[in-house]
């Protein structure tokens, strides 16, 4: 069977309602012979925003330092294989099919979430392929996330915490920070990005409770831009590296986290330089080819905090009329996402997400834009939206944003 067919089989085992628990994961991993106990040294990454970018920089750095690196991330943009990298390469179709079949057999028809099953498959694949490091990105939250079964990671990383997935993680920033801090382990050092005061306090209490030593931005290390370079100072000294190749001021903050983490892992200058120069992470302020005179950008951010950093990035670009092309899942609040962007854009065209029934109707998004003072229109597709923008706003900067699913459709040629 193809990986597509096998993944569809796993979807049919998904519980009707998601209840965050590690019980199903522990059962499945025991049936598979506990592959999570045979992984290379793990760097476990949680947070609301910046996890993927920090992981990309860490991977580039560790590989630049001569290491073989596994990496697990979610969701994918174009095809599932992107989620599992074995020693630097996307998992092959043959290898993916093999581990998915093993997971389906070991699960024996029991209820299992799609993320739990595919995380177990990633563990099986990564336990068998030799590597020096294993980067694990949390899928949702931290404490009860399927990745949080590794008992003794080499390092934990917590990127900035913000409001997101409140239906699962809690209504307040403090509650969400508590879930993210659930990845902390006794005796395992953790690098923590700069946080809101309430989130930082929660993380510090959680660390004290489990006995996890923290390296917190603003207390134990500092990063800032000086003369067009990133300077990071920690308790062992100061490093001066290029600014990250990933675009946007928020990526400078993410780069500081990555540098602090690499320093905590004992990596040298080659790794630090490579982390800044070689990181690749699509759909994060990604510049696309121009079309009909339009300057095109793509960003997969989909919560208010991500919109805020996107707005900061747009503010740093040369002045140009900016139009948003937006699609969003129905569990997102368009007005909350669009509010930080309203000062940067004059107009918005809302579109559907291809093949995604759980998306907002374009009219909902367009109405939210009009309520914020932007011109809000609808289009039946991305292509139609770009044609409309080219006519009404010739030469504009167009930012396609609001959903990783939309970003994946763009990159995969489906939009």
From TrEMBL:
Summary of the function given for this chain in its UniProt record: Functions in two distinct reactions of the de novo folate biosynthetic pathway. Catalyzes the addition of a glutamate residue to dihydropteroate (7,8-dihydropteroate or H2Pte) to form dihydrofolate (7,8-dihydrofolate monoglutamate or H2Pte-Glu). Also catalyzes successive additions of L-glutamate to tetrahydrofolate or 10-formyltetrahydrofolate or 5,10-methylenetetrahydrofolate, leading to folylpolyglutamate derivatives.
Similarity field: Belongs to the folylpolyglutamate synthase family.
Enzymatic reactions: (6S)-5,6,7,8-tetrahydrofolyl-(gamma-L-Glu)(n) + L-glutamate + ATP = (6S)-5,6,7,8-tetrahydrofolyl-(gamma-L-Glu)(n+1) + ADP + phosphate + H(+); 10-formyltetrahydrofolyl-(gamma-L-Glu)(n) + L-glutamate + ATP = 10-formyltetrahydrofolyl-(gamma-L-Glu)(n+1) + ADP + phosphate + H(+); (6R)-5,10-methylenetetrahydrofolyl-(gamma-L-Glu)(n) + L-glutamate + ATP = (6R)-5,10-methylenetetrahydrofolyl-(gamma-L-Glu)(n+1) + ADP + phosphate + H(+); 7,8-dihydropteroate + L-glutamate + ATP = 7,8-dihydrofolate + ADP + phosphate + H(+)
Enzyme Commission number(s): 6.3.2.12, 6.3.2.17
GO MF annotation terms: ATP binding; dihydrofolate synthase activity; metal ion binding; tetrahydrofolylpolyglutamate synthase activity
Pathway: Cofactor biosynthesis; tetrahydrofolate biosynthesis; 7,8-dihydrofolate from 2-amino-4-hydroxy-6-hydroxymethyl-7,8-dihydropteridine diphosphate and 4-aminobenzoate: step 2/2; Cofactor biosynthesis; tetrahydrofolylpolyglutamate biosynthesis
Keyword Protein biosynthesis set for record: no
Name recorded for this polypeptide: Dihydrofolate synthase/folylpolyglutamate synthase
One Gene Ontology CC term in the entry: cytoplasm
Domain Mur ligase central, first and last residues per copy: 45-261
Domain Mur ligase C-terminal: 284-403
Enzyme class of the recorded protein, top EC level: ligase
PROSITE patterns found in the cross-reference section: FOLYLPOLYGLU_SYNT_2
InterPro entries: Folylpolyglutamate_synth, Folylpolyglutamate_synth_CS, Mur-like_cat_sf, Mur_ligase_C, Mur_ligase_C_dom_sf, Mur_ligase_cen
Keywords: ATP-binding, Folate biosynthesis, Ligase, Magnesium, Metal-binding, Nucleotide-binding
UniProt KW Metal-binding keyword: yes
């Amino acid at each position: 069977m193809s990986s597509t067919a096998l993944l569809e089989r796993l979807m049919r085992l998904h519980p009707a309602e998601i209840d965050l628990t590690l019980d199903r994961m522990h059962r499945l991993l025991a049936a598979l012979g506990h592959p999570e106990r045979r992984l290379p040294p793990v760097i476990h990454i949680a947070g609301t925003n910046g996890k993927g970018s920090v992981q990309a920089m860490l991977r580039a750095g560790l590989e630049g330092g001569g290491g073989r690196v596994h990496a697990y991330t979610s969701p994918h943009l174009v095809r599932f294989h992107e989620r599992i990298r074995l020693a630097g390469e996307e998992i092959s179709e043959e290898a993916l099919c093999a581990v998915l079949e093993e997971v389906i057999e070991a699960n024996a028809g029991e209820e299992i979430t799609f993320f739990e099953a595919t995380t177990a498959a990633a563990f099986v694949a990564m336990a068998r392929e030799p590597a020096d490091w294993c980067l694990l990105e949390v899928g949702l939250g931290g404490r009860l996330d399927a990745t949080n079964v590794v008992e003794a990671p080499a390092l934990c990383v917590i990127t900035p915490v913000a409001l997101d997935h409140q239906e699962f993680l809690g209504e307040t920033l403090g509650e969400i920070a508590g879930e993210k801090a659930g990845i902390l382990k006794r005796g395992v050092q953790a690098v923590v990005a700069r946080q809101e005061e309430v989130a930082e306090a929660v993380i510090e209490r959680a660390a004290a409770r489990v006995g996890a030593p923290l390296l917190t931005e603003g207390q134990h290390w500092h990063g800032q831009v000086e003369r067009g370079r990133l300077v990071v100072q920690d308790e062992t000294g100061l490093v001066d590296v290029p600014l990250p190749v990933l675009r946007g001021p928020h990526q400078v903050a993410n780069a500081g986290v990555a540098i602090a983490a690499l320093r905590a892992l004992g990596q040298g200058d080659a790794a630090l330089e490579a982390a800044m120069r070689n990181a690749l992470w699509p759909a994060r302020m990604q510049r696309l080819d121009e079309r009909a005179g339009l300057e095109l950008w793509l960003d997969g951010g989909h919560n208010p905090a991500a919109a805020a950093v996107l707005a900061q990035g747009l503010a740093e670009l040369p002045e140009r009329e900016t139009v948003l092309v937006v699609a969003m899942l129905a569990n997102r609040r368009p007005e909350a996402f669009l509010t930080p962007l309203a000062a940067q854009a004059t107009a918005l065209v809302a579109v559907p997400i291809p093949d995604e029934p759980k998306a907002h109707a374009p009219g909902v998004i367009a109405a939210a834009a009009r309520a914020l003072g932007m011109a809000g229109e609808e289009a039946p597709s991305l292509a139609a939206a770009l044609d409309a923008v080219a006519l009404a706003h010739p030469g504009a900067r167009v930012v396609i944003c609001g959903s990783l699913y939309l970003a994946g459709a763009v990159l995969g040629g489906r939009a």
